[in-house]
Structure formats: structure tokens, C-alpha cells
Amino acid sequence: MSYDFKVYDQEIQKTIAFKKVDFDRDAVLIHKWMMEDHVHPFWNLNIPLDQFQSHLKKALSDSHQTLYTGYLDGVPMSYWEAYLVKGDVIEETYSSAPYDQGVHLLIGEKEYLGKGLSLPLLRAMVSFQFHERETKKVVAEPDIRNDKMIHVFQKCGFQAVKHIDLPDKTGLLMFCERSEFEKRWQNEGFYNDNK
User: Fold this and answer.
1) What tens digit of pLDDT does each residue of 26-58 get?
2) Which CATH class is domain 5-185?
């Protein structure tokens, strides 16, 4: 299988890869993840499959975001939304630059929880987003109740900015500046990627 981004993470000694979501291949699997107890309180997409499929089709047709399935050593186990801040509801919450990107994520498969994978996975995705040379900042807005993910974002290099009210939650606006990310991770060896 060819991926949009692939990297070997020395820390966990596993290959992390991302591939654009394909509706036929991925819809049922992502829907299964949305039904999981550790996912639905934050995503609110624990809805019947036909409704989720309509939601996913709409999301896939939204030109300001790209949806990815995340793979660990070739096994699909996470879901990602990488989006341009311009055109997103979050654009109104701060003074954004044209190439700022944002990220949403979930680990879908329960057996991968609690194994220290969130940081390596996030680090790989943010590295992928910074391959757009014009992007100087990656933004996140985790639910303020999601202490675990807020901690992971901070370890990756995101700084808390402020609470923001969004249509579906109160989020913590967080920024990861390219300079901070590269300074923090440039010597980790995971930076080298291939497709």
C-alpha cells in the first residue's frame, strides 16, 4: 500500500503512516471507532451508520480539510482531520495566517490506548503538516474536558492560548509554532519520511 506520509519512529520502533480516507474502504471502520466509549463523548458521532456515511461524504467533499486514516505498522488504528484554518469556524477565534493548519484526531482501536502512542502519532502528523513550507503554525482545539489529549498536545510542542466556544464544545485553543516544533524534535531521527 502506498501512503501519503510514512515515517519510522525510533522511539516506539514502529512505522507510522497516513493515507487519505477512502469512503468505500474506510467508512464502516471509522464509524465503528465513533461508537467506542473513549471516542463518542468528544466526537458526538455515535449515530447510525447511514447517518454517519452522509456525514463522512460531506466531510470528504469539504475542500478546506483532508481526512486521513492512520496506520501503525500497516494496521489502521486512528482517524485524522487536517484542515486549513482559513474557512474553518476556528478562523474567527484568533488572528490567523493564510497557511495555518489545524488537526483533529482519535485513536479508534482500544488495544492501542494507554501505550504511549498518542505523542508519536501526533508528532508524525504535525511533521507531515509542516511539509507545507508556508505553514508556520498548527492549531488544535481539544475539548477542555480532555485532559489527556491536552497533555499530549503540550508534550508535542503546543502552547495553550485560551478557551474558545465552538458550536459543539468549549475548546482549548492551542498553537504549535514551526520553530518550537523543529527545535524540540529535530534530533529525534523521526523527521526523515518517505512515501
Assistant:
1) 999 999 999 999 999 999 999 999 999 999 999
2) alpha beta
